[in-house]
Design a protein that fits this description.
Transposase Inhibitor Protein From Tn5, Chain A, domain 1; 2 domains; alpha+beta; 13 helices
Length: 362
Amino acid sequence: MDLPEIFSEVPDFRLNRKKRHELGDILVLVICAVLSGADDFESIELYGKSKLSLLQSFLSLPNGIPSHDTINRVFRYMDKSKFGDCLVKWSKEILSSLESYQINIDGKVLRGTDKKGAKKSGICIVSAWATEQNLVLGQSKVDKKSNEKTAIPELLESLNLKNALVSIDAMGCNVKIANQIVAGGGDYLLALKKNNKDLHEEVADWLKRDRTDFDRYEKTDATGGRIERRRTTVCTDLDFLLEPKKFNNSRSIIQVESIRESNEGITTDIRYYISSKVLSAKQFHEAVKNHWQIENNLHWMLDVVFKEDNNLTKKDNAPENLATVRKICLQLCYQNKDMSIPKMRKRAAWDDEYLLGLIQKF
């Protein structure tokens, strides 16, 4: 396994005469450690020293295991874009054989980077997620004086959108983003909320009508003592509507009504969407449901399994580079999933052959 070659395109900022550890060795060490349950630089160093004989079997490590200060310094000043590209290129290779897929776009704040006494000051990273394949296709940091709406176009520019259905929450529902997706060869599925007041009101009023040409689909699920009925209604005749025509190639408007019954009572939630694609109510039902997989399969996993929000690393590029490491490790688990991911991390720590089997797939 010549794993360090995977990171050969990541530039090394250090002076050659002062280097005691190869950059590729450091990055592979960190990935092995995080896969095995290490969540900070100190525990990464401890893991390396505990597994020195294993790591020496496929890494050069001319001066042994680097200190946690050395690893921290590398992650602070390493090019975050070039390192992130390693993850993106790997994902693109896996997707290269697929003709179409769904891309979910959503942002997540690294809570541990919040400044003391300043709420909502943490770094926010917008990610593009391939739903069915559990792959990160790209990521973009939101500028401090901006929001997700400005980061999304930059992220879309880096993606291959051909034949993809791109789903975004209400923050991304604007004409510029819709046009960019269509120009890139994809289709959009954008959530509507009252921040697009006129469009939201017109779509909501229209879909309240009891028309025979509306396509409808209903499905009931029972999980965790809760019964949920989802009713999806789709209209593709938009000739009588004004606001949807402002969006490039809008062809469908969708209503999803969720009725939840539990011991606490009955709640109803109605959401609206606009899309450039014509699909059946059943297909839109699945596409809307798939969008939330970025919350469940990416963001939740990073928070709960990889303890992302507990990590207090704040300086320079280190928070974003560590976020990339966690996504690489999560993706390795998904591509080789044979048990729950928390159990996979434990087994990787205990079973050297199992760990090697995981990282060989990168």
